């Protein structure tokens, strides 16, 4: 997935009110939108390099959007609004081997009155729901973790995937690690015990787990390779 414009680079000052971030850029402090509602644990150290986009839309209140933060010389994508676009681009270009056989891709498909799954993919013989989660927690450089804060929404999606599985759908939860270089992925049980318990229940009920990392630069983010769940 390519950005509309090459990203600009600045220095992190602080994040506040969840959706705002101050960035030092060319000697000035600018305010950018932070498109990530999680805690962003381990990413928000003052002085970290950041990459951000500039909108050409004159109606936007904030013209800048935070896209990446660099930690230990490695770029990490934090924009959760791009997560499904990255996965969709990979699906369409047959970059995810588990999904190569599915030719029909429908984003944001309603499953129940209170639930939409990120994708319904299908072929002539089967239908499959895919729920996507963005991963930005790296307490060890080689291990990706999810979640970075308590997620009741994430727990609800797991329970709904179990329901879909019992109705005959194939079901996947796809963890997108917006970083290169991790060897494995795990659930952060110490952060959300209830999510971890529900996650294990989902596995026992046949929900498939997929995790891929990404290559990132100031022009694009693309899915790279599969990493193992441990």
Structure explained in plain terms:
The longest helix has 15 residues, at 152-166. Strands 3-2-1-4-5-6 form a 6-stranded antiparallel β-sheet, with no helix packed on it. A 6-stranded mixed β-sheet has the order 7-8-9-12-14-15. The chain is globular. The two termini are 28 Å apart. α2 (152-166) packs parallel to α3. By secondary structure, it is α+β, with helices and mostly antiparallel strands. It has 2 domains: 8-74, Beta Barrel (OB fold (Dihydrolipoamide Acetyltransferase, E2P)), CATH 2.40.50; 83-229, Trna Endonuclease, Chain: A, domain 1 (3-Layer(aba) Sandwich). The chain has helices at residues 83-92, 152-166, 193-204, and strands spanning 8-16, 20-25, 28-33, 49-54, 64-71, 74-77, 104-112, 115-122, 127-135, 137-140, 143-146, 170-177, 184-187, 208-216, 221-226, 228-229. 37% of the residues are buried.
Count of the domains: 2
How many DSSP H or I helices? 3
Termini separation: 28 Å
Structural class: alpha+beta
Q: Give the overall shape.
A: globular
Quick one: how many beta strands?
16
**Biggest sheet features:** 6 strands, antiparallel
Mean pLDDT: 96
- Beta-strand content bin: 35-45%
Helix content: 10-25%
Q: What is the CATH architecture descriptor of the largest domain?
A: 3-Layer(aba) Sandwich
CATH fold naming of the largest domain? Trna Endonuclease, Chain: A, domain 1
Strand order of the largest sheet: 3-2-1-4-5-6
Under CATH at level 1, the class of the largest domain stands as Alpha Beta
Low-confidence segments, ≥5 residues, pLDDT <50? none
Following the backbone from N to C, one meets helices and strands in this order, namely EEEEEEHEEEEEHEEHEEE
What oligomeric state is this?
A: single chain
Rg (CA only): 18 Å
């Amino acid at each position: 997935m390519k950005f509309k414009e090459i990203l600009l680079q600045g220095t992190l000052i602080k994040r506040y009110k969840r959706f705002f971030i101050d960035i030092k850029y060319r000697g000035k402090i600018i305010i950018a939108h932070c498109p990530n509602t999680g805690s962003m644990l381990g990413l928000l150290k003052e002085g970290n390099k950041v990459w951000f986009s500039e909108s050409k839309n004159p109606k936007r209140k904030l013209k800048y959007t935070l896209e990446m933060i660099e930690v230990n010389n490695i770029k990490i994508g934090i924009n959760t609004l791009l997560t499904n676009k990255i996965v969709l681009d990979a699906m369409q270009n047959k970059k995810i081997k588990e999904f190569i056989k599915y030719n029909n891709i429908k984003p944001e498909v309603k499953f129940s009155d209170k639930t939409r799954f990120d994708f319904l993919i299908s072929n002539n013989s089967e239908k499959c729901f895919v729920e996507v989660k963005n991963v930005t927690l790296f307490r060890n450089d080689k291990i990706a973790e999810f979640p970075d804060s308590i997620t009741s929404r994430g727990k609800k999606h797991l329970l709904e995937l179990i329901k879909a599985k019992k109705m005959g759908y194939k079901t996947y939860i796809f963890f997108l690690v917006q970083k290169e270089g991790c060897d494995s992925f795990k659930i952060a049980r110490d952060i959300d015990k209830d999510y971890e318990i529900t996650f294990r229940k989902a596995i026992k009920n046949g929900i498939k787990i997929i995790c891929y990392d990404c290559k990132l630069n100031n022009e694009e983010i693309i899915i790279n390779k599969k990493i193992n769940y441990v």
